[in-house]
Every structure is written in structure tokens, then in C-alpha cells.
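User: Small ask, check this?
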Amino acid sequence: MAIENSDDPYPFADLALARRLEKTEAQGNVNFVEARAKAFPEIGATWLEVGGTYAMFDGSGSPISQTFGLGMFGPVYAENLDRIESFFFERDCDVYHEVSPLADPSGFALLNERGYQPIEFTSVMFRPISRNVVWSAAKDSRVKVHITDESEEEIWAETAFQGWSEFVELTDFLRDMGKVHAYSKSPSFLAELNNEPVATGMMTIHDGVALLAGASTIPNARRQGAQLSLLEYRLRYGAEQGCDVAMMAALPGSASQRNAERHGFRIAYTRMKWRLARA
């Protein structure tokens, strides 16, 4: 087990924390959509904010095309939901809302009234971070991690693509990732094993929260410490940028959730994704 040595206190998993976490994930998706618009302008990627809810369009069928923050900053009004639904329907896209259980109850009532169906759950996890993070488990000294630069765009993209190769339903989306991230404001990270690229990671920083995402390791390099090194490097980097909290999201009960909990993450809450199909 690789729990690090740290005396940093955990914040309460309350509405204030949930607002920070949800806003950070929304910002990460905004960054992606804005980068997509520059990399592939023909897709028409765009976003809007309505009453604290962030709606992102990254093309019909993209996992980025959804909302975050519904009901997190106040009641959900029918006219605001009308605007959001029109935003997606006008682009020939179903409507997806990923909603925290700490959101205002008015949102859940409207979703039920309008015929939305719950389709997915996500564990939102968090932990305090500081610059003095030290892992109790020894890391493989052959693994080195660094922030990528413009010259490594294709290397990062190909490594990530290989790492996510089992998700065949996302092949087209993943193939474009490198070009998109070349335009993104979010930093990306690369791990090398014996000077060969083997794993990737990403981060979004907002309001003192470091969102860790994009964890990917090529199949023949797994279980050799690449992701542990990426995690430690990103936690320290986030702390150096002034963050006091890190967050991750994972499928409930998954290996990703178990690994996160082994490294000091706790479940703040479980989000539910709702879907409304276009007529």
C-alpha cells in the first residue's frame, strides 16, 4: 500500500467543497472545448453558462458534451433548463447532466418532470495536498515524469491512445486528443520508463483545486509504477501552484476508485448522470 506521509487536514465534504470541485471539473471541460474549437473548428465546439450550470458541446456523441454544476449555485429554473436543452437540441445532441447529490432539490424535480433517465454514477473523490507529500512505498527509479511541451504533442497523444486502446467506442475521440491538448490551457504530463514514454496524465487547476484526469498507461508497462510517479508529481505540482485540494473521478467500485483510496483520496459524493434524448 502506498499511503503518503502527511498531516494535512481533510476539508469537510460539504456544499462549499462540492461547489469548488464541480466548478473545477466544469472549467476542465471548458478548457477542452475551447481547445477543440481551435484544433477542429469544423465541429462547432462551444459552451455556455446558465445560472451557474456549464453546458459544453464537443460534437454529438462526445463524452464532453454535457453539463456540470446543475443546481450547485441555487435553484434550477424551468427557463434556464429550457435554454440548456435548446443549446443541445439545436446541435442535434442528446442532453446530459452530471449532477451532485448536494445540488438544489429543484433540479431533480425538473429532471423527473421532463422525462430524464438516470444512466450512470461517478464517485467524486478528494484529498488535501501540500508540497511535502512523501510516499511510503518505494517508486521505481527507472520512471521519470515531466510536463510536456509543444514538441511532445504527438508523443503524448500516441502514448495516451495506446493506454486507452481497450475503449474502442472512443477511438475517434481519443485519436484527436493530442491535437486538442496542444491548444489546451490545462497542463499534460508524461512518464517515461527507461527513457521510453509509457504513461500520461492531465490536470486542471481552478479555485485551489487540482483536478487529476487522463491517467493512461500502455498495456506492456502497467504495474511498474508509472501511475504512482505521475500521481506524486502532479500532487506536488498542484501544491506548488497554490492548490490545497486534489480531486479525481471514477466509476464506483472500480479499480481506479480503489487505487485512489489507497493513495489518500476519500469519496466526497456520488454524482448521477441524467439523459434526455432529442425528439
Observations:
- Residues 15-123+271-276 form one domain.
- The chain has a mean pLDDT of 88.
- The longest strand covers residues 117-128.
